[in-house]
Amino acid sequence: MPQKIVNITIVMEFLLMGFPGDWMLQKLYAAFFCLIYLTALMGNLLIVTLTTIDEHLRAPLHFFLKNLSLIDVCYISVTIPKSIMNSLSNSHSIYLPGCALQVFLVMFLAGTEYALLMVMSYDRFAAICHPLHYETIVNRYACVQMVTASWLSGCVYGCIHVAGTFSVNFCGSNLIHQFFCDIPSLLTLACSGEHILEYAFIIASCCFSFVCFILIIVSYAHIFSAVLRISSIQGKFKTFSTCIPHLTVVTLFFSSGAIAYLGSAFKSPSSMHLLTSVLYSLVPPTLNPVIYSLRNKNMKVALSKMFGVKMVSKI
Asked: Which positions, given as ranges, span the membrane (predicted)?
């Protein structure tokens, strides 16, 4: 009997097709991405600088916020500069090791941010539900431990996904209809029947993510219960307002990720997949520093002090 020959191609590089369009559109894409990238970079680095040099920003919340900004700087730097260079040079290739590194870093940083957001919800829970013991519960040592655990869990998260994704063989085309190497696009290029390992990792990570999400919900259930027990309306609003930035960032992070996941799960058109990828790649890192800067009184004071010193020095 004749044996069926499977066309397995050893792919050593991929082509990131990104956004379609002529030379002028490519330059417009590059300009738009560059503007957003610089905005996100400036906002997050400003928060890192303020929380490092300002002695009034030494609370656990600001320590977590500094790490969140560092994650966002790294996260947006993994994909956007490469996409800008591709658009300007009209060269869309990325070698296999570079693609694997990009997948690892994206998943590593996304997992770390997810874990850190859970830690920040615990910080808000301790501050509102146990204010008298807050400094004991969330001390400096505990903060370092929780942040370290967040970074390590993100590293494990990235390792298992890059191992699962690149354990498959790729058949046929090496065209990725995306502006960076993401797992759904890579799995569409894999040979038939070789998705099982990565799908198992995806299911396991979804279960883990669901547990973390439930823990965030439980934290906020206790927070809402504590806020409702406050007698004055002004006291309720003042207490709950300390949670609004974190709650907004969590909502933004989950909603953008959910939209991107649904876009890939339901096999939406490539243009829609690109738009959802832009949503979760650009929006959270760009808006997170704005959300926290506008809602945090100490941060606004530090910002005005910094720019006030600069203005005086110029006179």
From this structure: 28-51, 63-80, 100-120, 141-163, 199-228, 240-262, 274-294
Tell me if 6 is assigned to some domain. Answer: no
Rounded to a whole number of angstroms, the distance between the first and last alpha carbons of the chain is 89
Q: Tokens 């919800």 identify what position?
A: 121
Phi-psi region of 192 (alpha: psi -120 to 50; beta: other; left: phi over 0): beta
The SS3 call for residue 16 is strand
Identity of the amino acid at 119:
V
Token pair in block for residue 31: 């300009």
Domain total of the chain:
1
Tokens of 248: 């907004």
Q: What is the CA radius of gyration of the chain?
A: 22
pLDDT tens string 209-248: 788 889 899 999 999 999 988 888 888 888 888 888 888 8
The CATH number of whichever domain residue 47 belongs to comes to 1.20.1070.10
Domain enclosing residue 156, as ranges: 13-314
- pTM, two decimals, is 0.86
